[in-house]
Amino acid sequence: MLLIxxxxxVALFATLANxxxxxxxxxxxxxxxxxxxxxxxxxxxxLNKESKRKTPTTIAFRNGDRVFGEDAQxxxxxxxxxxFGYLTDLLGKTVDNPMVDLYRKRFPYYDIVADPVRRTVVxxxxxxxxxxxxxxxxxxxxAKSYAEDSTGxxxxxxxxxxxxxxxxxxxxxxxxxxxxxxLKVLQLINDYTAVxxxxxxxxxxxxxxxxQYFLFYDMGAYKTSAAVVSYQLVKDKAxxxxxxxxxxxxxxxxxxxxxxxxxxxxxxxxxxxxxxxGKTKTDVFTNPRAMAKLFKEAGRLKNVLSANTEHYAQIxxxxxxxxxxxxxxxxxxxxxCKDLYERVTAPLDKALAVSGLALDVINQVVLFGGNTRxxxxxxILRTHIxxxxxxxxxADEAACMGAVYRAADLATGFKVKKFITKDAxxxxxxxxxxxxxxxxxxxxxxxxxxxxxNSYPQKKVITFNKHxxxxxxxxxxxxxxxxxxxxxxxxxxPDLARVQLSEVAxxxxxxxxxxxxxxxxxxxxxxDDSGIFSLANVELVLEKTVTKEEEDEDESTFQKIxxxxxxxxxxDSADKPAEEKPPTEGGAEAKDEEEPASGKEGKESAEEExxxxxxxxxxxEGKKQSGKDKEADGGAKDAKPEAGEPADKKAAxxxxxxxxxxxxxxxxxxxxxxxxxxxxxxxxxxxxELFDASAKRLSALDQVxxxxxxxxxxxxxxxxxxxxxxxxxxxxxxxSCATETEIETIRKRCGEISxxxxxxxxxxxxxxxxxxxxxxxxxxxEVYARHWEHQERPIALNALKQMINGSEGxxxxxxxxxxxxxxxxxxxxxxEIETLEKAIRSTxxxxxTEVAEQEKLARNAPVxxxxxxxxxxxxxxxxxxxxxxxxxxxxxxxxxxxxPPKPEKTTAGKKEGEQKEEAPSSEELPGSEPVLxxxxxxxxxxxxxxxxxxxxxxxxxxxxxxxxHTEL
Length: 968
Hints:
By secondary structure, this protein is α+β, with helices and mostly antiparallel strands. It contains 25 helices and 31 strands. The N terminus and C terminus are likely disordered. This is Hypoxia up-regulated protein 1.
């Protein structure tokens, strides 16, 4: 059995060693949720220190201390300018952005200044300043700590959830914030995509080859969005495997419609009502602390009115020690937000319009997001779509759970069932460059790279044919007016990057020759799965014409061998013509210049499409040439030899034709890199020295937190020890173990420390607390040690007694296994029996003597018989017994020689009733080997690549049938 278990244990540890936990973070404007998955543990939500599943995205600073979540919200009521929340929509924006102006209007007590280098948002609190990336990074650090506490493992990788309308500036800023938090971002996933993924993995069985359409509607604290998606089983052409695919078809959003705007309006209403009461002459809107109290109460009142028709708003000591109490009805709240409710259906209609689908083909409209619980919002949506709304998603956690599934898919160490996601581009991206026309005038050319609602990740290539000298081009957003409808300023700069290409003329001059032709400069662009745009590389593409003679001269022996082998595996014929350059209609300049490739499903470049077109033209030209050759040979139409014609003659004729045919030159494609310099035109990312400076500030804050935690731990330990010592000395059980002098010394020392703690020691550092604790322990530990000895000694003596009784029983049995008493089983010698008997007798004598001497001593006297002495004595006796036990296990009786069998007379048959000779067992057969227990076969779903996790483990029972559960 050990042979079976050991490999299984080793395999388990190998799996865990190669696996690591990963997390997802739904960093919302108001709440933060953290999803985790680790080897052997299904997907789950990590709890915070209050054992709650979501945490307010608030951070506060006060007197050098830093707090998060609910503690930060509590501190923010007293010191609003020191507590920062609703930060996510400030990422990647300059201080003159309309969204920053709206933030200032909602929270007038914040001191927001511009970063001197990047012009981004910086919060100033006294002498301290915090960039928006630094604040977000600290929130991500807290999320990381919650995930690590939940899994018990170090976490370095994550998937972050972002709004779909995040542009390049916001996405790169969030990635920089994650780097500050020492996190590697596996992917930025849009919130509606994460929710759609979560919805699909629990309904995998319902997905088939027919597309099913769903609309996901989200209203959060800051924004509202809607997305139309399709679910369908699609077969991969390369792997021939069929996987479910969720694809985003249309998106609509309103980035200022959300629960925060409703809460702010309710706050302002309560403030106006308080001013009307005339309890104080001070305007409540001029007092930041009063406004913070009103904001908190408005949030509570908004949630209560979602389930009740009326409720009282009440705040003690709102302003100038005046209390505030007001009855608010749901009708009044809805009247305040009347114009907001008129905007509820716009994102839904926009998503449908972009997708090109009618509402009647949508299977369900699924709600998620906290503010979709508002009854008025649900009534408006239900009336608008004319059907019931689906509420079968966890509105708060659906996105987080979908993102953590994606994190497990991207991370190493997990085996997940493939579920492909195809997101869509919201803001088209184009390339703009100058080109000189035939008249010599320069005109601006625009080419779309990534069009609206194109799937990504995706690669694109654009070719510049007419540029023979250094030039530059610009990458920018396209068609923003059509997409944003007047809100283009919220996205920031329309330009994304300026690219300067150098050494173009130099590379062309050095590369172009008589048999080398330039095919233009190709720029390769990438939109990765996080939706972040980048320029991959720029290269000069050349085509070299190589004749057969030059090819034979240039080709080395090793190249010939390599080509021969590759042809064998590829099935190419030696006589097959090489890549031939097809003739172009109208010459090389006739094709559309600088035209970007559309690609197949966002993966094929323009260069690949051009090669496919060339291959098709080659085939057509080959057919035409074959037809001409046949006509020249007398119009022969059948390639088969005529009846009676020998095959050798046909082969000879074909050889003659091959000799007479013109050998076409081979076209070889060459690529030469072109140096390029990319200068970002939007908000400068946090990088270089600026990043290092921010990292240094965060490190200093971490050190302060660690020192604070160490000090609090040391102070609590010292206070607890002082109180515990005083309480124990009042108990007879402990007091009897101490002398009068010791009791007096301990009480005096405890009193001195208590007095010091409440006076001069309240501001001491951690090292001072730890030193005083060690001093007090040095005085009291002697008494505690005596008490422990007196308490544990009876237990140890009882264990010794049982060992002695067992040894005596074994001794009685062992006496019957000597040569004198049992010649056939002479296991032990007389000396061994005598040695064990002496060990038992001496142990009994030692025990009786030491117990008697210990009982003569007082409880506060130095201990004579310690527990260690007893355990050491037990070890000596145990060693003697084990020696004899092991000898008994290894003993085998001596085998006597077997006399030869007597010859027996053989008979032709057996009499009736005689017993047949039994066949020997496998153990009796000579040369047979024992059969080991076989290792049970692995389940078909188990792999050695990593842990397989069932996301529905908490919702349904596992069964033995494959396919009855959804695996990660």
